[in-house]
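Here is one chain, start to finish.
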Amino acid sequence: MLIVTAKMPKRKLTLGVAAAALLCCCAIALNFGHALSREVSGSALPSPKGVKSNQDRIDYLSAYGWQVSEEPIATQELLIPEEMDSSYSEYLALQNSQGFDLQKYAGKRVKRYTYEVLNYPTGETGVQVNLLICKNTVVGGEVLSPQLDGFLHGLAMP
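Its structure:
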């Protein structure tokens, strides 16, 4: 058996213990923060992949909190332009802020499904939500009011 003794001033011992405790608290807080951010980002946003049927689209939108009409009010096939000029910059920025990169789909055909929103927070009627889908993957979307003084924002509930 080996016994080691050391003489250390109380002040240095107190500072050392306090520093070690502070480091442990920081490590725990960082670990908790990373776990919380993974949980929030993983569960808050629905997966854009595997959206094949009308019910899948409705479920995708309901994950954002939207209640929509049972059937789309419009379905259109669109061609994403090969080159997007400056007139697309605001729309591309909106899609990028939601994690959608439309430039990745330049030159490809997508389907736009438009649904009527039944639970817009202000009570406004006629609000619509669009989903852009390419090969069963949501590649873009927005909520809009087609009124003259309307609005356009991302899929997240305001």
